[in-house]
Amino acid sequence: MPTYSARMRGVKLNTTIPKTVLVTGAAGGIGKATVERLLKDGQRIVALDQSYASLSAAFGDVTSHLQFSEGDVSRPDRCAAAVNTALEHFGGLDAVVHWAGIHSRGNWLDLTANEFNRVLAINVTGSFLVAQAAARYMTMHGGGSIVLCSSTSMLVGTIGGDTGHGGAAYVASKSAIVGLVRSLARAVGPSGVRINGVVPGVTDTPMISSYSAEERKTQAERCPLGRIGKPDDVVGAATFLISDDAKFVNGEMIIVNGGAIFG
After folding, report:
1. What pLDDT does residue 258 have?
2. Residue 170 among the catalytic residues
3. Residue 210 contacts residue 185 (beta carbons within 8 Å)
4. Which candidate in 74, 104, 173, 174 is catalytic?
5. Alpha-carbon span 54 to 179, nearest angstrom
6. Does the active-site annotation cover 151?
7. Which residues of the chain have a pLDDT value below 70?
8. Active site residue 174
9. Does the model's pTM come out above 0.85?
10. Domain 20-256 class in CATH
11. Among the options 151, 153, 173, 211, which is catalytic?
12. CB 3.0 to 4.6 Å from 194: which of 20, 77, 165, 250, for a disulfide?
């Protein structure tokens, strides 16, 4: 079982003091936008990504309100280390916003067992390990809030291939997040820890870099708002879920896709 540093204190969610938030996948896309939004709001952030170099490129140097943590979320020791960074530098951990994950557009004929398992290890096991590491602390120190990330691809079962959409491995991994959120919400809710999820639609991040101009146009036309989402469009759902305004929201999934019609 991971061990945590001795400098621990419980901080219940409170709008009058800054929160300490662990943000994963922080160096780019929705994760970077989340860090920027929370820093602007005066929160204290531990930004987790695969390398210090990518974090430094995204944000510059660490500050009194921003600390970096490096590692692969599919490794329990790196998840525990990220929580320890929050405890050591900020004295506690109030919330987690977990965006880290990988894309896979391989169709069912091309997927190997190794590729399928790799996607599940990062997207599903990684989500569990991040939540587990945070909840080990939160359940003993006044509660907290954890937000995991699914995808609207699981609503329609995209099949991957040349379009750039997620294939079977990606869809399976993002479908699993719904069940994980519900199970964890029931398990740790009695200790004051809320678990919820955000379900983004097509969002303009490196994950859709393989989309053709025609596919981007098609996706924009499917949305009543007439465009593909931007990272900042998704951030608000997550910041709401970790706020005191959502103190009675638990085990829920918020879809953020501009009302797009899929299929």
Report:
1. 87
2. yes
3. no
4. 174
5. 31
6. yes
7. 1-16, 162-164, 207, 209, 261-263
8. yes
9. yes
10. alpha beta
11. 151
12. 250
